[in-house]
Amino acid sequence: xxxxxxxxxxxxxxxxxxxxxxxxxxxxxxxxxxxxxxxxxxxxxxxxxxxxxxxxxxxxxxxxxxxxxxxxxxxxxxxxxxxxxxxxxxxxxxxxxxxxxxxxxxxxxxxxxxxxxxxxxxxxxxxxxxxxxxxxxxxxxxxxxxxxxxxxxxxxxxxxxxxxxxxxxxxxxxxxxxxxxxxxxxxxxxxxxxxxxxxxxxxxxxxxxxxxxxx
Length: 215
Hints:
Elements (H helix, E strand, L loop, with lengths): L1 H27 L2 H21 L6 H20 L3 H17 L12 H6 L1 H28 L2 H37 L2 H24 L6
């Protein structure tokens, strides 16, 4: 899970550096300026973590390497598609991480982990598929479309596709869990439903045992 969270964070950071490049390029139409500041943005991201004493993971160094190489290739060829292609690599990395069966289970409440772990595995695979589709979509748009088209298409596709998968996965988990719980024998159903109340009960007990500031 640690690797998944790292990859997801890298995806957000990488898209941010690409967005910096896109905005500057659309405003100035200056490839060198846009790429230079995009590279600087990526370097600063890593630099801030070093200054804060945070350990830099291998995938974060990889992200910085991609920023530098794609930016350098763009400057040498004057072809901004190198920068635009870079997010496809990160999308693909996240997709590979999400292929691990059950990665989504740890994000679910206890009752869902108990009742619908198999559905969560399938939803996790759907998320992985979305990452690979996003990688292919970004590469296709970067190679065949103008930068202005990419600046419009990818943010819309990224936001809409993730909302659709999130809502679809949530609905699948919730509806399946309800159906399975209703089909359980009464004793088993009560035991499962008790899992939902247990965290709240534990929290209340902890609060009662914790000394107050005035005490």
